[in-house]
């Protein structure tokens, strides 16, 4: 993700950005759809971190855990590890705890409500710290990274993941309006360069072990959850676009998102999912 506030705050919004119950419910759906649709990517990423780790993690911390996409995937992959989820939102943490219990992971997963902008809570030393699409929301990310450094054992690993660009779903010609609508949406909301955490990690004392982009390219036809995932993502973007796109573009986007006609997202057989996410894996020397 980048420094542009509009699209950065659109997805996923964990630490420091979820307040009202309605916002938490909407964010929970988006995060859980992301976990379901992009499950192969999450498995690939966590398996890669396991290869980089010098030993099986005993304690893992998830910074800005949201509904627990990372927390639960980490607990399922590293079966001997205790996982601590940190987030500002009690609603999202409650949802995470219910899912952990349903999966039989309640004895290894705990939630801690905290505002990392105010400092780190007292936690046991960790072997792995995970920060997925959350660090760029911190008021002082360098201070948060310094806290992660202090919490990790010697040789412990920090994984920072950012979305390079918001997921794309539509073909260039969607059958209504001018071609290239989705490209114009993203160019409007996300004009800046992506954050590069390399120098931030070095300032905190970390040694970069690896930096890896993960490409997500899911072709049609896709499972039903993808339709809802695309709809929620596009609705989130649409909420920032009034007065920023032409009336014709907005009408075409509305026809895709909410309409019942032939171009509606609910009727399309040509949806795909295209995005990339980059992970920085850094070690405490």
Describe the 3D structure.
The chain has 285 residues and is α/β, with parallel strands linked by helices. It has helices at residues 5-8, 21-37, 39-52, 69-77, 90-102, 141-151, 181-189, 198-203, 224-238, 247-257; strands at 59-63, 82-87, 109-113, 126-132, 152-163, 207-218, 273-283. α2 packs across α9 and α9 (224-238) packs antiparallel against α10. The radius of gyration is 19 Å and the shape is globular. Residues 1-20 have low confidence and may be disordered.
Topology of helices and strands:
Layout: H1 5-8, H2 21-37, H3 39-52, E1 59-63, H4 69-77, E2 82-87, H5 90-102, E3 109-113, E4 126-132, H6 141-151, E5 152-163, H7 181-189, H8 198-203, E6 207-218, H9 224-238, H10 247-257, E7 273-283
Parallel strand pairs: 1-2, 1-4, 2-3, 4-5
Antiparallel strand pairs: 5-7, 6-7
Helix pairs in contact: 2-9, 3-4, 9-10
Task: Record the strand order, biggest sheet.
Answer: 3-2-1-4-5-7-6
For the secondary structure, the number of strands is 7
Q: Unreliable segments (pLDDT under 50, ≥5 consecutive)?
A: 1-20
Structural class: alpha/beta
Overall morphology = globular
The percentage helix is: 25-40%
Total helices: the number is 10
Characteristics:
seven-stranded mixed sheet; single chain; 20% strand; alpha/beta
Summarize the structure.
The chain is of the alpha/beta class and 285 residues long.
């Amino acid at each position: 993700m980048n420094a542009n506030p509009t699209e950065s705050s659109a997805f996923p919004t964990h630490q420091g950005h979820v307040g009202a119950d309605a916002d938490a419910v909407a964010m929970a759906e988006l995060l859980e759809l992301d976990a379901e649709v992009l499950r192969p990517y999450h498995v690939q990423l966590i398996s890669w971190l396991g290869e980089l780790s010098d030993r099986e993690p005993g304690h893992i911390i998830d910074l800005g855990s949201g509904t627990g996409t990372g927390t639960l995937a980490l607990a399922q992959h590293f079966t001997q590890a205790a996982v601590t989820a940190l987030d500002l939102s009690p609603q999202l943490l409650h949802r995470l705890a219910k899912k952990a219990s349903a999966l039989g992971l309640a004895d290894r997963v705990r939630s801690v409500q905290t505002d990392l902008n105010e400092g780190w809570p007292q936690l046991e030393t960790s072997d792995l710290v995970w920060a997925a699409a959350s660090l760029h929301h911190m008021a002082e990310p360098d201070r948060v990274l310094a806290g992660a450094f202090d919490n990790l054992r010697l040789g412990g690993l920090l994984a920072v993941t950012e979305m390079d660009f918001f997921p794309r779903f539509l073909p260039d010609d969607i059958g209504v309006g001018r071609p290239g609508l989705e490209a114009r949406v993203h160019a409007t909301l996300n004009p800046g360069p992506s954050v590069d955490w390399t120098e931030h990690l070095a300032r905190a004392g970390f040694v970069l072990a690896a930096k890896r982009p993960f490409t997500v390219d899911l072709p049609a036809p896709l499972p039903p959850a993808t339709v809802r995932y695309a709809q929620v993502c596009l609705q989130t973007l649409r909420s920032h676009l009034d007065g920023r796109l032409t009336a014709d573009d907005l009408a075409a986007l509305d026809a895709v998102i909410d309409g019942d006609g032939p171009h509606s997202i609910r009727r399309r057989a040509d949806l795909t999912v295209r995005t990339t996410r980059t992970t920085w894996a850094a070690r405490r020397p």
